[in-house]
Specification:
Blueprint lengths: L37 H11 L21 H14 L3 E5 L2 H12 L5 E5 L4 H10 L6 E5 L5 H10 L6 E7 L11 H15 L4 E5 L4 H4 L9 E5 L13 E5 L1 H14 L5 H11 L2 H20 L4 E5 L8 H10 L6 E6 L2 H11 L4 E2 L9 E3 L11 H7 L5 E5 L5 H12 L2
Parallel strand pairs: 2-3, 2-4, 4-5, 5-6, 10-11
Antiparallel strand pairs: 1-7, 6-7, 8-9, 9-12, 11-12
This protein binds pyridoxal-5'-phosphate (PLP).
């Protein structure tokens, strides 16, 4: 396998000879697969349930679409190429990828070291759902340092109970970066002190698999809302976990019993989407730089939040240089006039759609204070730097001149 994943997105894991010469993978819209004979069926089940080890070169045969399906498998093989992961698991949503990963590793009495802010659904799952199962959390945010995180674990007497470090970086919507290398060091220390395994999981949705590679900084598993860049067309909901084999296999095993695997048609659509992932993401990042340059010079924009930009502060710039290969296509900015000023801009955009979600080929904008982060207490939003005048913009693949013209006329209303 050569180095460039984008070259393999159209073919890896599929041979046209398997399907009447069809160049593209057909949709295997079936719930179950016929065995050639009973002995074969018995063997497939023995492998699927881990009763026996696969012989050299032996593959698990197709059984039932909750366990395996060609569309899901081909998609997973291609997804693992972007980051050189051992294995990938595809889900029916980003939330199911994240929830299944957490449930696979956290038991009653365990603690998750959890970054803040995160996507609202993840925040809700950890704060409202996991607590019902007796799973606690220690929050850390972009203001925390190595020392203050240590102090928090110490104060909670949790060295023996932290079983997962979970981080979403850049933080949504402030674009603050968390130091993955530092978090990996803390994970290693917890393992040493506690004498048990601690999983390091990263939600890399905001950077997609191209611009930040958490496994290079020690992550065991990387979660994605595939609804975002991976899909890139705002036409499906899906999720992905990639990572080290033993961990992804554990997550996949729970997926089999929760039954939240990706469906054949969604897997087929997503396989189609990732053929163009690199060119879409490249264009989005290029457009974002043009848009940032415009916003920086506009008198009605009081602050820009963009990875690597000087307004994020020196430490953040250094972190960006260490951890990311591009600033991405998510820009937050403060409009003069608070909520009223931000709403005026949002309500007058014509090309840019007023909608949540991100990473798609069309530009989308929303108001984090009252929309995606409505669930976070106001004083907490202020502490984290989420202002009433903030707009979060996900830059698409349109001509950047048109995106800028749209913003210009909306800012000047
Ligand atoms: C960073 C992040 N993670 C996870 C999710 C959840 O993904 P999904 O909506 O595909 O379930 C989202 C959705 O917006 C997200 O932005």
């Amino acid at each position: 396998m050569k180095k460039h994943p984008e070259s393999w997105m159209m073919s890896h894991g599929y041979n046209p000879k398997w399907s009447e010469g069809s160049v593209k993978t057909p949709i295997f819209q079936t719930s179950t697969f016929a065995f050639n004979n009973s002995t074969e069926g018995k063997r497939f089940f023995a492998l699927a349930y881990g009763k026996d080890q696969a012989a050299e070169g032996e593959q698990l045969g197709l059984i039932y679409s909750r366990l395996n399906n060609p569309n899901m498998q081909i998609l997973e093989e291609r997804l693992s190429l972007w980051e050189g992961a051992d294995e990938a698991a595809a889900f029916e949503s980003g939330m199911s990828a994240i929830a299944t990963t957490m449930l696979a590793y956290l038991k009653p009495g365990d603690v998750v070291l959890f970054s803040h802010p995160t996507y609202g659904g993840t925040h809700h799952f950890v704060h409202q759902v996991l607590v019902e199962f007796g799973i606690e959390r220690i929050d850390f945010d972009p203001h925390d340092t190595y020392n203050t995180i240590h102090e928090k674990i110490e104060a909670a007497q949790a060295w023996s109970r932290v079983k997962m470090v979970y981080v979403e970086t850049p933080a949504n919507p402030t674009n603050d970066l968390f130091d993955l290398e530092m978090l990996n060091t803390i994970r290693n220390e917890i393992q040493l002190k506690g004498g048990h395994e601690v999983i390091f999981a990263v939600d890399n949705t905001y950077m997609g698999p191209l611009w930040q590679k958490p496994m290079d900084f020690g992550a065991d598993v990387v979660c994605y809302s595939a609804t975002k860049y991976l899909s890139g067309h705002s036409d499906l909901i899906a999720g992905v976990v990639v990572g080290k084999r033993e961990h992804v296999v554990k997550v996949k095993t729970l997926r089999t019993f929760l039954g939240n695997m990706i469906a054949p048609y969604t897997a087929w659509l997503l396989t189609r989407s990732i053929e163009t992932l690199k060119i879409r993401m490249d264009q989005q990042a290029k457009n974002a730089l043009d848009v940032v340059a415009f916003l920086e010079a506009h008198p009605k924009v009081s602050k820009i939040y963009f990875p690597g930009s000087a307004s994020q502060g020196e430490k953040q710039v250094a972190l960006f240089q260490k951890q990311c290969s591009s600033a991405g296509a998510m820009i937050s900015f403060d409009v003069v006039g608070g909520e009223e000023g931000a709403f005026r801009v949002l309500d007058h955009c014509e090309l840019i759609k007023l909608a949540v979600s991100l990473g798609s080929n069309e530009s989308l904008a929303q108001h984090p204070f009252s929309m995606t982060h409505a669930d976070v207490a106001d004083e907490e939003k202020i502490r984290l730097g989420i202002t009433e005048g903030m707009i979060r913009l996900s830059v698409g693949i349109e001509n950047s001149e048109d995106i800028i013209a749209d913003l210009k006329q909306a800012l000047e209303v």
